[in-house]
């Protein structure tokens, strides 16, 4: 279990210039000495961490050339993202249009709409969303929200107030 914590503390593997196969090989090599002690839950945490790092690296690569203070439109479509961390866009104070369609995003973080409080247009079509965070109810600028092609089963009860 202590070795798993060392893995958690290791530097972000995505920052290296290794391809996905090398990253997976490195992770497996780190686990080999403690193969008997590594639980399924530990492996799942490691996989989730890898997926988050991979998604964050994809987004960072896509936005690195943009002018953070003045950019109003960000397009992150068809990147096969299964999660999206709105914190990656904190430096973009003027974002009004965000395109996240045709990914695999299954949920939005609780403070998504608080972080991106100037959004007027949000395209989340063709993802895997089942609900929206309550923070949408307090978003004063959002005019257009596209959700077609998701698996929405519920919306925040506050949205009707």
TrEMBL record:
Coiled coil: none annotated. Keywords: Leucine-rich repeat, Repeat. It holds the Pfam family LRR_8. InterPro entries: Leu-rich_rpt (IPR001611), LRR_dom_sf (IPR032675), LRR_domain-containing (IPR050216). Signal peptide: none annotated. GO terms for cellular component: cytoplasm. This is Leucine-rich repeat-containing protein 27. It comes from Cacopsylla melanoneura. The lineage of its organism: Eukaryota, Metazoa, Ecdysozoa, Arthropoda, Hexapoda.
């Amino acid at each position: 279990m202590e070795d798993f914590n060392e893995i958690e503390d290791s530097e972000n593997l995505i920052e290296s210039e290794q391809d996905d196969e090398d990253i997976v090989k490195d992770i497996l090599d780190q686990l080999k000495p403690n193969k008997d002690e590594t639980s399924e839950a530990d492996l799942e945490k490691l996989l989730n961490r890898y997926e988050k790092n991979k998604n964050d690296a994809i987004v960072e690569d896509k936005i690195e050339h943009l002018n953070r203070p003045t950019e109003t439109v960000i397009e992150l479509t068809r990147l096969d993202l299964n999660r999206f961390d709105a914190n990656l866009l904190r430096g973009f104070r003027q974002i009004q249009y965000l395109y996240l369609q045709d990914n695999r995003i299954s949920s939005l973080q609780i403070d998504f709409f608080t972080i991106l409080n100037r959004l007027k247009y949000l395209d989340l079509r063709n993802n895997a969303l089942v609900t929206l965070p309550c923070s949408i109810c307090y978003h004063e600028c959002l005019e257009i929200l596209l959700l077609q092609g998701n698996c929405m089963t519920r919306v925040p009860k506050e949205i009707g107030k």
